[in-house]
Amino acid sequence: MGIYTIKNIRQLTYDTYEMILTGDTSWIKTPGQFVNIKIDGLFLRRPLSVCDIVEENMTLIFKVVGQGTKIMSKMKPLQQLDILCDLGNGYDINVETEKPLLIGGGCGVPPLYYLAKTLIKKGKIPNVILGFNKKDDVFYEKEFADIGCKVYVCCVDGNYGYKGFATDALSMIDYDYVFTCGPEPMLKAVYDKSSTSGQYSFEERMGCGFGACMGCTCKTKYGYKRICKDGPVLFKEEIIW
Length: 241
What we know:
By secondary structure, this protein is α/β, with parallel strands linked by helices. The protein folds into 2 domains: about 1-85, Translation factors (Elongation Factor Tu (Ef-tu), domain 3, Beta Barrel), CATH 2.40.30.10; about 100-205, Nucleotide-binding domain of ferredoxin-NADP reductase (FNR) module (Rossmann fold, 3-Layer(aba) Sandwich), CATH 3.40.50. The protein has helices spanning about 65-75, 110-120, 140-145, 185-195, and strands at about 1-10, 15-20, 35, 45-55, 55-65, 80-85, 100-105, 125-130, 150-155, 160-165, 175-180, 200, 215-220, 225, 235. The chain has a 7-stranded mixed β-sheet with strand order 10-9-8-7-11-12-15, sandwiched between helices. The protein is globular. The model has no long low-confidence stretch (mean pLDDT about 90).
């Protein structure tokens, strides 16, 4: 647990915000981990994946979907937040891959940015597919491109990028491993359509965020696992749909 100070907050789309916090970031072990934020007046904390870490600065991205995230969207620089840190098991970046593919859908995009930066430091430049419903939902396309990724944006309505779902771009890309994060229907589609192994980060409603309440338990081929504690990242080979 730690106290973090808001350094900056900016609106990325009509309902999506980027928040940069300053504080202790030494706990981050791997891309895909998350934090749990206390919102005054609300009982449950709000879990958010870490989008980026630069020295003592931590970037989070969130979509306004309820009272908690609406309150967050109105916060100001210098405001302080009570945050549970060092949560979840992230992506295993030591797997064998020369042509990694990152696939993010909507709110599943943020953790893939820090993953992309980490892979690039290891000499593995990924292709990235970003899936959204419409052009007004698109964010971080430029940020991925600026660090050297080849970016494919897919919009369901066809008004920007490639028309269709994120998985519709799979046939255009040469890849040997998949890292993905997004809503469960998208993850299932990636599972069915991808031709390689991979790692899947699941979105799940959470109570405590550290495995005590058992509220986010799911069945895998190797027994029951808690998405918050044993995940959110699972390997393709262990997933049961």
